[in-house]
Amino acid sequence: MMRVAMEIILAHALGQDVSQLAAQEKRLLLSRLLARFAHEVRNPLSSLDIHVQLLEEDLQDATLQIRDKTASRFEIIHGELHRLEKIVKHFLSLAGPSSLELHPVEITKVVDHVWELLRPEAAARGIEIVVWLPDSLPAVMADAAQLTQALVNLVINAIQAVERNGRVEVSAGRQEPDGALTIAVRDTGQGIPADKHSAIIEPFFTTKAEGSGLGLWIVQQIITAHGGVVEASNVADGGAVFTVHLPGPRKENGNG
Q1: Whether residues 42 and 60 fall in one domain
Q2: Which residue blocks in 59-184 are alpha helix, DSSP H?
Q3: How many domains does the chain have?
Q4: With 60 as the cut, is the pLDDT of residue 18 above it?
Q5: What is the reported pTM?
Q6: Is 47 exposed, middle or buried (0-12, 13-18, 19+ CB in 10 A)?
């Protein structure tokens, strides 16, 4: 369903039939389309930002009443320009391998932040977000902002899968003996249909009424850039679980 939508989008944008292309080729074309879109938007966006600043300077000589009246409007304009710039950067990051700023990241802090961020939305739907974390969890080398984005997308996906009156569980831990980090997001929704399992992370594919079909694909892009993998499976007693596996700390080779 949504895979066809991706083909239609690509066909209109690129002027060619893409239905016979392999999935990898479609993803490559989509990445190029996102990059082209981002660059096309960025130029007029920069021009708008400059001219808004010039307009503000021109209004410095206006009456106090006019300056007060326009101040809030300029604040909105600047806020929306900033939001659009973030969207453009986001599309650019999706267009190719992500540039990571790696630092030691405490997963407990990331999980707690995501819980605080999405708890009100979940509560409004009658959904409980439960967090299971070990007492001690070593830091992992990661890009904190991108890892947070990945977890936000996974939890939002789980909330949308439950829809109303259910439960989302977020857990994390270390695997032995390599010390790999795992983050799992489990929901009590309908689970992944058997005939959709292989396509669930494809761009623009979704089984939900709400959602663009890009959320899980973005997760995969981010985790792959970290050298990890994302697994999706159904739970025996209902619902689905998405598990992120991130590589453990590298062992230094020394000769003494």
Answers
A1: yes
A2: 64-95, 107-124, 144-162
A3: 2
A4: no
A5: 0.62
A6: exposed
